[in-house]
UniProtKB/TrEMBL annotation:
Major location (coarse): membrane
TM helices/strands, residue ranges: 6-22, 43-63, 75-93, 114-135, 147-166, 178-200, 220-240, 261-284, 304-327, 365-385, 391-409, 416-435, 447-467
Alphabetical list of PROSITE patterns matching this protein: NA_SOLUT_SYMP_1, NA_SOLUT_SYMP_3
CDD domains to which the protein is assigned, alphabetical: SLC5sbd (cd10322)
Family the UniProt entry places it in: Belongs to the sodium:solute symporter (SSF) (TC 2.A.21) family.
Alphabetically ordered keywords of this record: Cell membrane, Membrane, Transmembrane, Transmembrane helix, Transport
Name this polypeptide is given: Na+/proline symporter
Keyword Transmembrane: yes
Subcellular location: Membrane
GO BP terms: carboxylic acid transport
Length: 481
């Protein structure tokens, strides 16, 4: 591996650690650590929102799908995120006005202690799995890019991500995300001219790639699947601690709205960049112009073919920036998952059920300890689990299937009750689980989260009307000190 490429990646890692150290100087309270002191402006909000959601699947995964059977329609994987951010605009100021640190805290103060605890367990389990998956993805990318063994790569990314996230909390994560989102977009953008030049230009790409690959709907499965992606993202962004904490951390409701709009624009701009790279790779393959090492990478795992292509076709500096961008994609998601897991355990399990008299500083310490323990557990899981990414996609959607309806309805409907919340969370999640595991029939060509959310909504309304709240309100009960 070229020394220049290695040096750029190492400098990037050191920069992340330096930002973590700088951010640690700004942490004076638990609120600073978990929600960055609620002082994020629109630009920082947009950067951290976009970076958190543009992970390995939205970068290398879209390149691989564009090269494969999805073609240009794989852009919807990212476009749907942008649409979700737009749909969340009316909710953004509501999220910020709730003045909570975590989603389970909202459930506890809006409904009851049991709802907060149960939702906290579901979300914590999902975040632990997501952290392991992002560690695994980051290590796999580092292994391919720098030619070091997987275990060493995993230890490196675990240490770097954990150290800067534990030092500076959400403030550190936000600042690193802001840099990472530009590295992701710029790194992959500058790869396009080199890929096009190698392929003989866009006209040649159009001539050597099957026409179906340029369809914006065929490969992904049509408008029904596209709608399913949008609904899934709206649901998961609303209740996922790694995403919604950014709205909690906004300076005010206006900044939350502006941040959501800017994050959507970033997704819309970025969506076709990995698609073009994937189509260029397919063109090169069809022309028989790919290097043998790239062909071997394609046979092993299409997701890592882009780094192999970069090594043989791009200058070392460009490749180094691209590699830093690729590793940024997964690290920017991993740090948010790690912080989310630590925040939920300390704020909604430890302080509520284990040690009610815990001080603010004690809760912050428990958050950091939990983050380290989750990181270690995720490291071990990433070492031995083979199908962790499939599990993560399941966990990611499972939490949204049950918690989305009571979370959103609680902001608007005064008749929302604890009974409605509990029935919605329990049965919405159960229906999705049974459909996903093929224990009950799914609806053909419809994402399983859609019928799960529909059942969740029906149960929430019915049980809220049958067992109404003692007091009709949308406000939250003040937290007892």
């Amino acid at each position: 591996m070229n020394v220049t490429i290695i040096a750029i990646v190492i400098l990037y890692m050191l920069l992340m650690l330096a930002i973590g150290f700088y951010s640690s100087k700004k942490i004076n309270s638990n609120t600073d650590f978990m929600v960055a002191g609620r002082r994020l402006g629109p630009l920082l909000m947009a950067g951290t929102l976009a970076a958190t959601e543009i992970g390995g699947g939205s970068s290398l995964g879209v390149v691989a799908n564009s090269y494969g059977s999805w073609g240009a329609s794989s852009a919807w994987y990212i476009i749907a995120m942008g649409i979700a951010f737009i749909i969340l605009i009316p909710l953004a100021p509501k999220f910020r006005a709730s003045e909570v640190k975590t989603v389970p805290e909202y459930f506890r103060r809006r409904y009851d202690k049991f709802s907060g605890g149960f939702s906290g367990i579901i979300m914590l389990m999902a975040l632990i799995g997501l952290t392991a998956g992002q560690f695994k993805a980051s290590a796999s990318i580092l292994e391919v890019m720098l030619g070091i063994d997987y275990t060493t790569s995993l230890i490196i990314v675990t240490v770097v991500i954990t150290v800067y996230a534990v030092m500076g909390g959400l403030w550190s994560v936000t600042l690193t995300d802001f840099i990472q989102v530009f590295l992701i977009v710029i790194g992959m953008t500058i790869a396009i001219p080199f890929a096009l030049k190698l392929a003989g230009g866009w006209t040649t790409v159009r001539q050597t790639v099957p026409a179906d690959h340029f369809s914006l709907t065929k490969g992904i499965g049509g408008w029904g699947q596209i709608a399913g992606y949008v609904i899934m993202y709206v649901a998961t962004f609303s209740v996922g601690q790694e995403a919604v904490s950014r709205y909690y951390a906004a300076r005010d409701g206006k900044a939350a709205i502006q941040g959501s709009i800017l994050a959507a624009i970033v997704n819309f701009v970025f969506a076709f960049i990995p698609v073009i790279l994937g189509l260029c790779m397919l063109s090169l393959f069809n022309q028989g112009r790919l290097d043998a090492s790239v062909i071997d990478a394609l046979k092993t795992n299409t997701r890592y073919a882009l780094p192999a292509l970069a090594v043989v076709s791009m200058p070392a500096v460009v490749t180094g920036i691209l590699f830093a961008g690729i590793i940024s994609a997964t690290m920017s998601s991993a740090d948010s998952d790690l912080l989310g897991a630590g925040s939920i355990f300390s704020n909604d399990i430890y302080r509520v059920f284990l040690r009610k008299e815990a001080t603010d500083k004690e809760v912050m310490l428990v958050t950091k300890i939990t983050m380290v323990l989750v990181a270690l557990f995720s490291l071990v899981t990433a070492l031995y689990a083979n199908n962790i990414l499939t599990l993560l996609a399941f966990s990611f959607t499972l939490r949204a299937a049950g918690t989305f309806i009571p979370y959103v309805m609680g902001h608007f409907w005064k008749k929302s009750s604890s009974a409605g919340c509990i029935s919605s969370v329990l049965l919405g999640s159960t229906v999705f689980f049974l459909m996903d595991k093929h224990l009950i029939p799914s609806i053909p060509k419809v994402n399983n989260i859609i019928p799960a959310l529909a059942i969740s909504l029906i149960l929430f309304v019915v049980f809220s009307l049958l067992f109404p709240p003692k007091e009709e309100r949308t406000s939250l009960v003040p937290e007892k000190e």
